[in-house]
Design goal:
A two-stranded parallel sheet has the order 1-2. Helices cover 71% and strands 4% of the residues. It has 140 residues and is mainly α. α2 crosses α3 and α4 runs antiparallel to α5.
């Protein structure tokens, strides 16, 4: 008889779910407030909407794969994503500080491309290996 193995919910798993949920929430804010946020950041409203859609896809994929991908993979991807986010935000601030007008577009451009790359890398990552003699219980 085979045993059903329920995945252990760890702080890392909760963190990955929260990260994906935050991206979904941010996506809703970007889409709903595209015009005023675009004016504030100096970006066109369409870029805010496209970025929101990308974040919605990325956050959804991130949340959906928490049971089938290793937390090591998640941690590495989140560190890379957040590092790029910080560097891009700093580049945007530097552009604005020097009088440029493209800082918001650079920052929003990153937030449009990065969630899609994150999601693609997560989908392409190897699934979690189960111990021999066990199977994952997929019934809900």
């Amino acid at each position: 008889m085979t045993q059903a193995l329920a995945p252990r919910v760890t702080r890392q798993t909760v963190g990955a779910i929260a990260d994906g949920g935050f991206k979904v929430l941010l996506a809703v804010v970007y889409i709903a407030g595209a015009a005023p946020l675009g004016r504030l950041l100096g970006t066109p409203a369409w870029l805010m909407v496209v970025s929101g859609v990308a974040l919605l896809i990325g956050g959804g994929v991130e949340t959906g794969y928490t049971r089938s991908r290793s937390m090591r993979t998640y941690t590495r991807l989140m560190i890379a994503y957040d590092s790029g986010w910080v560097l891009t935000a700093l580049a945007g601030l530097l552009m604005a500080w020097r009088g440029g007008s493209a800082g918001g577009e650079v920052w929003m451009g990153y937030q449009t491309a990065a969630p899609i790359v994150f999601a693609a890398l997560l989908v392409g990552a190897a699934p979690v290996q189960m111990a021999s003699g066990t199977r994952r219980d997929t019934s809900v």
